[in-house]
Structure formats: C-alpha cells, structure tokens
Amino acid sequence: MANTSPEDAWAPLGDRFVGGHYGTLRGRVRTYVVDRHLAAHLPPPPLRIVDVGGGAGHQSIPLARRGYDVTIVDPSLAMLDMARETLAAEGNSVAGRVHLVHARGEDAPDALGQHRYGAALCHGVVMYLDDPRPLVNALCPLVTPGGIVSIVAKNVEALACRPALAGNWAEALAAFDADRQVNGLGMETRGDSVTGLSDMLAVRGVEPVAWYGVRLFSDGWARERLPDDTEDLVLAVELEASRRDPYRQLSRLFHLVGVRRPPEH
Prior knowledge:
Elements (H helix, E strand, L loop, with lengths): L13 H9 L2 H17 L6 E5 L8 H5 L3 E6 L2 H12 L3 H4 L2 E5 L5 H4 L5 E7 L9 H7 L3 E12 L6 H5 L3 H7 L4 E3 L5 E3 L3 H9 L3 E9 L16 H12 L10 E8 L5
Parallel strand pairs: 1-2, 1-4, 2-3, 4-5
Antiparallel strand pairs: 5-9, 6-7, 8-9
Helix pairs in contact: 2-11
C-alpha cells in the first residue's frame, strides 16, 4: 500500500502514469531519447546525480545500474513508494546507489543538506508548475561548477500538433495561441520555449549547451501494438528526429542541457 497524504496529488494517478505512460511506446520513446542524449553529456561514473521530481525513478534508476550514485527527490510519497518497489527487485549494488528524499523540488537544497552534485535532472516537472522560476532557482545551485543541468519541458511552440493529428481541429486552432493543455492524465500542463528556459538558466549561472526534441512521430501512440521487430526502428527514427531541424522543433517535448559556469571572481 502506497503512503499517501492529502497533499499528494500523484497518489491517485501514479499507476496510470507508470503503466499508461511509461509502459507505452511513446513513454519508452521518451525515456530512450532523453537517456541517449543525457549519456552524451554526463561524465562517466562514479558521479553523484540528483533527480528532482524523479518520481518512480524511470530515468534515474537505470543510471544507478550503470554505476551512478542517484538521489531522487519527489514531493509524492506514492511515487517514491513505486521507486522503492522497483529497487526491491534490484541487487544491493544498484539499490545501495539510490537514495529517496521526500521533498518539493523548490525545497531540495535544504532537504539535501546543501550537498552538491555532478548533475541535476528535472524531467517532466516544470510543465506542471504555473511559474517554473522557483524550481529553477533551487535546481541550479545543486550542481557543482562544470556540472550538468538537464531539464525536459513541454514544447509550447508545438501544442497544436497533437490535437491536429488526432483530428481535434477546434482544439488545435485554440492551441496556436495557448500555453496550456490538458494531458492524458487529465491534468493541465503548461508549455515552455527553448529560448525562455535557456535564458532562465543563463541568468542563474548555467550555460545552455544543447537542446533536443523528444517524441514527434509516436507522440499519440499510447495504446498501439507494433510487431516485435519494429520498435527498434521507431526508436532510431525518433532519435534522429530529436537532433535535426525542423523535426526537433515540432516535438511534443524538448530536452535542454546546460553546464554550470565557475563562479566569477
């Protein structure tokens, strides 16, 4: 039984999020594309990584399997319980490298005792916030100079794509001038632009160095079943689209990577 609290908005949604999103093809595309690009920027282990809003650990537990020391910070006890269940099936060498911390992302510096990390991940979190700045304020100081900040956000400039491809023309028309949209979980989400988030990082001492699209052609594929020999091709196509214009510009999400600058003297 998951621990819940009145404030835990994810408690009733956790099973749907894990099975209905990460368990689908589009969920696997998201994890794969983000992981491939993250691997290109992360130094090899050993390295300490903090995953802010890391939930059930879909992005960070695989990093622990590769030898990274990972701390997952999340405000949802239910999601942390799911991470704990996954870790129970891992060997001690993996589970021992993952630490679970119950806290809001905005409170992460205090909750972590002012520890610093070689990389800070924040994937699929800012889209649920009316104002991402308090979270970004907390995220950037968690990283040591030269360390990586990795953010996955919803692409505000492509909100019309999904409803249009689904034939929801009225919704698509409204999306051209919108920055919010209800997602598959029934939750309102907010979009960001690459430029806006890049500027937000830059003024906080983190230099944006790269960005990628995440999930274009398979974005609406929540329930489709593919022949067993097809998924690898889908992943390969989505990975190519993620780093090429104009495809990455049309992707549902984007992955922004920055490097923390040394302090100025």
